[in-house]
Design a protein that fits this description.
Elements lengths: L6 E7 L8 H9 L5 E7 H4 L9 E4 L13 H18 L5 E5 L1 H9 L4 E17 L1 H5 L10 E12 L3 H7 L2 E6 L11 E5 L4 E4 L7 H9 L1 H10 L2 H12 L4 H27 L5
Parallel strand pairs: 1-2, 1-3, 3-4, 4-9
Antiparallel strand pairs: 5-6, 5-7, 7-8, 8-9
């Protein structure tokens, strides 16, 4: 028995040709699901934009100001997102989208959910994240502790959630920044449920412990962290990467949970419309 129509997924690489672990980590999670066929699109550097013929879209993190674009890739990117949103409003067969870090900031701004702001200091580490009341019952977060831990690397953030716009979209903030004495009282948005099919996180749910440990042990990366952020940050990152209930727990629940829910719903719809197995 084999699948006649595998689930098709587009991975939108937003890293602008900058070295990263995110794309490989997303692929690593996707490889757990034999039914998923995926293709990577280099959105910012090569201006590659997928069409509407995918079932799932994972839009990655990336460097730089989320409000900067060249007027080409960013316009086409937002046009795609608008088309996917409209598709879901008008069709029973849904398109599933997950936004990570840079992409999360971009879509929050585009949809009017919050304000993009430059942080007073860069957030860098594997840090605690607080669930909101809505997050306590969200299927992707409900089995995580509060706070849970996420790989968080950002100079920009989404603050000042627009309650009226959230209500209009029937969206909800599901996680916020854990309080820190060095940040403003305006806690950054860390996760948003945009719809039943769309979810996004400010942190990197794809980050995996062994990759982070390898990253931290690279001499040039260790020196960079020690010089810019200090020994305490380095040791805390290593501890949280190795702790079985922290980074690993987040990696194992959020993005795999999103993909499993999407896959189950896509295949269930396919069974009603046409044969899934041959």
């Amino acid at each position: 028995m084999k699948f006649h129509h595998p689930v098709r997924m587009a991975i939108l690489d937003m890293n602008n040709n900058v070295e990263n672990m995110g794309i490989a980590s997303i692929q690593r999670i996707a490889d757990r699901f034999a039914v998923i066929d995926y293709e990577v699109f280099d959105v910012r550097y090569k201006r590659e934009i997928p069409g509407l013929d995918f079932d799932i879209y994972i839009s990655s993190g990336g460097p730089g100001d989320p409000l900067d674009g060249d007027g080409v890739w960013d316009k086409e990117y937002f046009d795609l997102m608008d088309q996917l949103w409209e598709h879901n409003k008008n069709h029973a067969e849904k398109k599933f989208v997950f936004f990570v870090c840079h992409s999360f900031q971009m879509i929050c701004h585009h949809m009017g959910i919050g304000t993009i702001s430059l942080r007073r200091k860069e957030s860098f580490g594997i840090l605690p994240v607080d669930k909101t009341d809505e997050g306590q019952s969200d299927p992707l977060l409900m089995h995580l502790n509060s706070p849970f831990y996420g790989a968080d690397f950002r100079r920009y953030e989404v603050i000042y959630p627009n309650a009226e716009r959230l209500q209009e979209l029937n969206a909800s903030v599901t996680a916020v920044e854990n309080p820190d004495l060095d940040i403003d009282e305006n806690r950054a948005l860390m996760a948003v449920r945009f719809s039943n099919e769309w979810f996004g996180t400010q942190f990197h749910p794809e980050a995996h412990p062994d990759g982070m440990v390898h990253y931290l042990r690279r001499p040039e990366k260790k020196e960079m962290i020690l010089s810019q952020f200090g020994l305490n940050t380095y040791e805390e990152m290593m501890h949280n990467a190795l702790h079985p209930d922290r980074l690993a727990h987040t990696r194992d629940l959020i993005l795999p949970g999103f993909l499993k829910d999407a896959m189950d719903r896509i295949l269930a719809y396919s069974k009603e419309g046409e044969p899934v197995f041959v």
